[in-house]
Design brief:
The protein is α+β, with helices and mostly antiparallel strands and 287 residues long. The chain is 15% helix and 37% strand. It has one domain: Acyl-CoA thioesterase, double hotdog domain (Porin), CATH 2.40.160. The protein is globular.
Amino acid sequence: MPFTERTLMPRGVRGTPHHTLTTNARRDRRTVAYFHRTGTTTFRATEHAGGGWTPHEQHIAPALGLLVHLIENDRDARRGDDLVVARLSYDILGTLPIDEVVTTVTVIRPGRTIELVEARLGHGGRDAVLARAWLLQRRDTTAVAGSGFPRIPAAKDMPPWDAASLWPGGFIATAEVRRAQLEPGRAAFWVRTPVPLLAGEPTSALARAVGLFDIANGMTVRARPDEVTFPNVDLTAHLFDQPEGEWVGFDTTVTFGTDGVGLTSSVLHDHRGPVGTVAQALTIRPA
């Protein structure tokens, strides 16, 4: 049978429907969240962070947003918000159960106008995610701003797409997606979620947006996920503007090579237009 997304059947458990989550999240943002803080450096993931490949393990996307929140909190405690995040590089070292995680933040290269900060997130005595962020001094460059990246249509101009019809897990169930699919492995789409990153604690627009970046690998698939697995082992984001608003836009291309390696590359958007790029290295494993 020729590959179409309509032939894909979700595996494992399904999450709570998005419309139910929207109602619940608006009702009580103190309890409905991807993480709950349990200590100064510890957080417990909830069922809403359940993964697409294995629903009883975490989808890595919320954890990436949590690490940005911690990097920003560390920056603000030390010096204020005069530095902005220009690059985020994550190495995904292993899987995470839906359980408590432990975090650390370390300044690798301090500086007046440039800093390199490292954050780690782990469970059971081992690191699962290693993040490094370049923070650069904020300056007014409005007079010379511009980009050659084309803009994608607005979210309101794209049809809704039910990502949970393709992927199981709590995290995907929380995502509202609007998508213009061009072909398998090529699409533009917008994503937002009503679920806060962290219960009872404000987070920045950047942290909330980064908490959605990893969804790019899976929103326009080249092959049936029950026949070919293609998890990403990293994620690198370069930002030339800080994302604003609740929707994150992606102009995404998925490429599979001939030696078991692939790439999901995306241009990131907010309501103003392109704001950066994301790249994810894939390990391709036919069943």
